[in-house]
């Protein structure tokens, strides 16, 4: 069945909001250095755009966990596919995610990262689907709260497609 993509958030809306979060983070971390941890692949577009708008010193690292196949539902199984290159010791870490859905992935990931001796670990997500939460996760910076729709674009995929859309779209199957 062919799917159709409906715009939920335009490129302009997303860019404007990322600038606001960048300003807020730059303000909150004044005088400090930030270590951004990107959760691949979905968080990559957001992290790059966000990093460009942060005015305090920033270093970057990447990790990859798997919780999704070609399906639209989280399996709850979290596996580290690629771990970080650098130590988190004494760093001001911000985990950058594309979306918090059930919260299973992030809950596991944040617990694991917090055990690695960072000065602090915060969470920044472009999108949040609060209605879908199964595991409680504290989100420090949120781009947009969105309804319970399967979304793509800005790094988010449906079966590895649509990550490159410069806006957030809803996948429709009618
Ligand atoms: P959670 O563990 O259920 O919170 O799932 C988080 C991960 O599932 C995200 O990082 C995404 O990779 C993926 N995911 C959740 N909802 C969506 C969606 O609407 N579109 C695309 N990927 C999603
Ligand atoms: Mg993700």
In a few lines, what is going on in this structure?
The protein is an alpha/beta fold and 174 residues long.
Order of strands, widest sheet: 4-3-2-5-6-7
CATH architectural type: 3-Layer(aba) Sandwich
End-to-end separation: 9 Å
Poorly predicted regions are none
Largest sheet: 6 strands, mixed
Instruction: Count the DSSP helices.
Output: 3
Given the C-alpha coordinates, what overall shape results? globular
What would CATH call the class? Alpha Beta
- Mean pLDDT across the residues is 93
Identify the bound ligands. Answer: inosinic acid, magnesium ion
Radius of gyration: 16 Å
Q: Structural class of the helix and strand makeup?
A: alpha/beta
Percentage of β-strand residues: 25-35%
SSE topology string:
EHEHEEEHEEEE
What portion of residues is helical? 10-25%
What kind of oligomer do you see?
A: single chain
Number of domain modules: 1
């Amino acid at each position: 069945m062919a799917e159709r993509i409906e715009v939920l958030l335009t490129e302009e809306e997303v860019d404007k909001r990322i600038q606001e979060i960048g300003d807020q983070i730059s303000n909150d971390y004044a005088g400090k250095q930030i270590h951004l941890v990107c959760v691949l692949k979905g968080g990559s577009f957001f992290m790059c755009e966000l990093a460009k708008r942060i005015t305090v010193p920033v270093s970057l690292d990447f990790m990859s966990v798997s919780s999704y196949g070609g399906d639209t539902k989280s399996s709850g199984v979290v596996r580290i596919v690629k771990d970080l290159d650098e130590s988190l010791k004494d760093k001001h870490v911000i985990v950058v995610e594309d979306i918090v859905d059930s919260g299973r992935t992030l809950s596991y990931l944040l617990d694991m990262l917090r055990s690695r001796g960072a000065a602090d670990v915060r969470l920044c997500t472009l999108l949040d689907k609060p209605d879908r939460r199964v595991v409680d996760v504290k989100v420090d910076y949120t781009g947009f709260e969105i309804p319970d729709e399967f979304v793509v674009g800005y790094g988010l995929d449906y079966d590895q497609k649509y990550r490159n859309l410069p806006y957030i779209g809803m996948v429709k199957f009618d």
